[in-house]
UniProtKB/TrEMBL annotation:
It comes from the Bacteria. This is SDR family oxidoreductase. The lineage of its organism: Bacteria, Pseudomonadati, Bacteroidota, Chitinophagia, Chitinophagales. Keywords: Oxidoreductase. It holds the Pfam family adh_short. GO terms for molecular function: oxidoreductase activity.
Length: 281
């Protein structure tokens, strides 16, 4: 097979993963598009530079097998994009412990397992790039999103820490921080998760208040967000820099700037204002 650049992407059955796989393939890359159930979920166009493989980030054996098959087929892997993930929304008290564990198992430990599995290959080559898909809520917390927020905070910390370690062996690690991407199936699944667990009635006021806040977020979401995030991922994969974080979509820029550029007092005052704090303090 061709010796051009090869990218392995997790979570390609739909949404951002599928769009990213197609974009890289259209730009001449060899693409290893992985997903949990390729036979039933594969919507990618069949082409010579796309290899669809089964990879479940909760199953280490499928991670190992996919990496081995990809290297055997394309000769090497240059970039790994940890995209697989989902959002668990709702009142923390109402969400069962097993779902809490699942949230971290997919969003954090899944990315860690894929990273650990690819590192021997990258060490041998003395180069490689790992892109972890984070979120604006990996920077600031949102009520009713405590578990998803916590998982992305963890991913941010993990990625930043290993970026120093892996730089010593020629491997670059980066974070993509998008806001709302309505064109994917992510918001729909998050809404389904939210409706799965009934919270105690004492939380009704904050749930009702946040409904209006989230509606404003959806209204202000960038209609071209998916395209912009995909292009940012491609830029981060090809710009030959060691830039750690890439902030995408304008909807979250004000809150990220508040978090990173303002005092704690100013940040918390503004966020409580956004979340209609008087209703539930």
């Amino acid at each position: 097979m061709t010796k051009d650049k090869t990218v392995l992407i997790t979570g390609c059955s739909m949404g951002l993963g599928a769009a990213t796989a197609t974009y890289f393939a259209n730009n001449g890359w060899n693409v290893v598009a992985t997903m949990r159930s390729p036979d039933s979920n594969n919507t990618l166009e069949q082409r010579s530079n796309i290899l669809v493989l089964k990879l479940d980030v909760q199953d280490k054996s499928t991670i190992k097998q996919s990496i081995e098959k990809a290297i055997d087929y394309f000769g090497k892997i240059d970039v790994v994009i940890n995209n697989a993930g989902f959002g668990m929304n709702g009142i923390f008290e109402s969400i069962p412990e097993e779902r809490v564990i699942e949230q971290f198992d997919v969003n954090v430990f899944g990315a860690m397992n894929v990273t650990r599995a690819i590192l021997p290959h990258f060490r041998e080559k003395q180069n490689g790039l790992i892109l972890n898909i984070s979120s604006g809520v990996g920077v600031f917390g949102l009520p009713l999103g405590s578990l998803y927020t916590a998982s992305k905070f963890a991913l941010e910390g993990f990625t930043e820490a290993i970026s120093y370690e892996l730089a010593s062996i020629g491997v670059v690690v980066k974070l993509i921080e998008p806001g709302a991407v309505a064109e994917t199936g992510f918001p729909k699944r998050s809404a389904q998760e939210f409706g799965s667990y009934k919270a105690p009635v004492e939380y009704n006021r904050i749930i009702q208040s946040m409904g209006g806040v989230f509606q404003k977020f959806r209204t202000n979401a960038d209609p071209d967000a998916l395209s912009k995030v995909v292009q940012c991922i491609y830029l981060a994969s090809t710009d030959n820099t060691n830039q750690l974080r890439y902030l995408v979509t304008e909807d979250i820029v004000p809150m990220v700037k508040l978090r990173r550029e303002c005092s704690e007092e100013k940040f918390m005052t503004k966020m409580r204002e956004i979340f209609n704090y008087e209703l539930f303090r």
